[in-house]
Amino acid sequence: MAEFELLRNVTVGQYIPTESVVHRLDPRAKLLATLLLSAAIMSAQPILACLFMLAVMLGIAALARIPPGYLLSGLKPVIGFLFFVSIFQLLFNTRPDANPRVLFEWQFIHITQFGIQTVITNVIRVACFIFLVSLLTMTTKTTQLAHAIEMLLHPFRRFGVPAHELALIVTIALRFVPTLAEELETVMKAQASRGGEFGTSRWTRPDKMARARLPLIVPLFVSAFRRAEDLVLAMEARGYVGGAGRTSFVQYKATPLDYAVVVAAGVLAVALPRIPWPAVSQLLNLFST
Length: 289
Fold this sequence. Notes:
single chain
């Protein structure tokens, strides 16, 4: 049955009301901090820097009172993708501008120390990105995200940027992630009840897994279009009008803690690539001595 439990493992778009200090932050501050932390994750090159960012994500989860097991479950949908990408990087990724340390070589396969480090850093980066986006949606309601995005983009409206429309698109996209996961789970169970080959293919045979999931594409897209049409009709029935001239009832007021969070995320994004992180081999030599 674990093959069909998609909604349980989709953490992006889920809101968990634990009433923590992270939940009480200004959504604009959380959004800016998320962007700055994303820049810090992208700039993390050494393994120790990536591990540090992973520890930061877990620390934020602890402050938000998010169970670590539930946060880690968000990696389950991408484990197969990460596995095959890591295999290709491990076998064919070498550093062309230096003499890489070859650990294993056979015909066209070259496993180097640089390839192993690249695989580890990329896996940690992807995990950090998933945790970061999940934490943002777990601690911020969809309406709060919409208002925060619109307020942050409001100064750019004079340059023709549709602030309200962009905020609406982003929030609907985030809200539809768990909805589509639930719909996909329903379609998979329906196909399995009709003799579909779900739950029998192993991850070691990606060709069979892909062939078994091809019948899910059409019903999933049909359901997504139907839900989108229902959403449009519901918004029109409620008299929704977007664009210029639209006012907002919600007003946010930042606190010193909100400014401190944004400043701390900015300092981390600027200082992280400039820190002389030691290599893992240097640490191992240091502990061995």
